[in-house]
Amino acid sequence: MLPEALSSIAAEAGVAVVETAGTDHWKLFGEQLACWLARGEQAEQADLARLAETEAALQAAPDSSSRAVAARHAMAWQGRFTAVLEQLRAVERNPAAAHLQRLVRDHSTADTPAASAPGVIAGENVRLQADHGSLVVGVANGDVHFTSPFHPGPAQG
User: Fold this and answer.
1) How far apart are alpha carbons 113 and 104 in whole angstroms?
2) pLDDT digits (tens, 9 = 90+) for 114-136
3) pLDDT tens profile 41-66
4) Gap between the Cα atoms of 151 and 93, Å rounded
5) How far is CA 59 from CA 49, 87, 150, in A?
6) Rounded to the nearest 5°, which phi and psi values hold at 57?
7) Buried b / exposed e across 46-80, counting CB within 10 Å, b at 16+?
């Protein structure tokens, strides 16, 4: 299990893949990500092919399902980045994560903000619930449905 800071970097990189796909930054960003993922191994071509598949899927997605497709791909890439970081020795993880974070920042599109960390990316329903007087705050890019508000019990006033 990765520390939260490294998991956040992996999540940010997953979102960056989706946000950068199809932009002017995509080709170089994809090549550098594939090189980062390969870590000196022969898998670089396979990762380039996966990145190309992501770009094609995002471009082919109809407007009605584009958010869900983007979320699925962002989560898949987050998982891939997490897996690579988990396979590294402890002394290699922080430098590798810092390198990944630099790649994301160097190639982020100017008109699209990077994902704030920590965060949740979901292509399906998400339920946020506050209890005991707490507050839940989030940003939703889609439909939001509310249930009835909390009603305190007699002991709570």
Assistant:
1) 11
2) 444 445 555 556 666 666 666 66
3) 666 888 999 999 999 999 998 888 88
4) 47
5) 15, 32, 42
6) -65, -40
7) ebbebbeebbebbeebeeeeeeebbbbbbbebbeb
Q: Which residues are within 8 A (CB) of 82 and not within 5 positions of it... i.e. 6 or more apart?
A: 2, 7, 10
pLDDT at 79: 95
**Which SS3 state, helix, strand or coil, does residue 135 take?**
coil
Distance between CA atoms of 145 and 157, rounded to whole angstroms? Answer: 27
CA distance 56 to 51: 9
Predicted confidence (pLDDT) per residue in 11-31, tens digit: 999 999 999 998 988 999 999
pLDDT at 87: 93
pTM recorded for the entire structure: 0.68
Identity of the residue numbered 29: F
Tell me which residue of 130, 139, 31, 17 sits closest to 78, measured CA to CA. 17
User: Cβ distance 13 to 78 under 8 Å?
Assistant: yes
Under a CB-based contact definition with an 8 Å cutoff, are residues 58 and 69 in contact?
yes
Distance separating alpha carbons of residues 30 and 113, to the nearest angstrom: 19
